[in-house]
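Re: the 333-residue chain
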Amino acid sequence: MSGQLRAFRLRGVGGAQKFGVAAGSLRGLLRKGCRLLQLPLAGSRLCLYEDGTELSEGFFRALPPQTELVLLGPGETWRGCFGDVGRLLAAAGGQRDAVVEAARKLLSDELAPQRQKLLVDLLHNLDENILAEHRQDDQKWFEGLESRFKNKSSYMRYSCESRIRSYMKEVSGFISNVHPTARDAYKRIIDLMLEKLKSVKYNGCYFDRREEEEAARLCTVEGWFSCQGPFDSDYCPCKHSINPYSNRESRILFSTWNLDHIIEKKRTVVPELAEAVKTRDGREVNWEYFYQLLFTLDNLKLVHIACHKKTNHNLSCDKTKIYRKRKQTHKIS
């Protein structure tokens, strides 16, 4: 089924020229791209320019307009170059201009067409402003954002806070499914969670590269994020990485990454919380345990959309932590 037309930037493996192509479905975009670049439809695929992730129909629907894509013909591959080049830029530090100038000089060597292509890609990615933080230093990065965001980190904090707020909204909205006799107790737990979230500013530090405590953020000091892999793995097999601080396109693309619950929020954690409140029978629900599962890195991992498995995780809450342990009282004889 075709959706609303969106424009993408398309290029082939063998050239740096980009074409604007609009389509409402992955199949439609592939068909137009093959016609434009004179490639056979059979065996051709589309992938992200940034890291080489091949597109599925579901992934395509989540992409923001103007995402840069590579059309692969039969047998062609694209690994992407954004991650390695970005790290090179970070390592180059103050010598960025010298690196760019050296690359431009090498491009004049007409005897090395393959090297020329790699250097064109290098220049494309070096021409970023990764280390710039303030609006006046990288105005293009802030295009489309409200004027109240004066630096990149403040927007990235807001982005993370928005995700956490949405989780809180889901938990609060579940109260209609809670047994009527337990709703007041459930509401009190929601209020406690909300109070704690406000005290830590909705854990916006997870996306803030300026956060001093390394364990409290998911990125490097330069702003690099790495996919932490599917819920059932400790690593990303495709080694996905992104720096949303680098340019506007990467900032938008980062919004398609998932801050995924390992023990599922909707299927497991929230229903378990409601059941615990209903059947507490005088026991005290350990709301801080559920808070950790819902809103902290104890149960959250950052996942590239291609690594986000929507199947049932089949993981459950720790039954020994649902209620607080009662204090032992000893009789004195």
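The radius of gyration is 24 Å.
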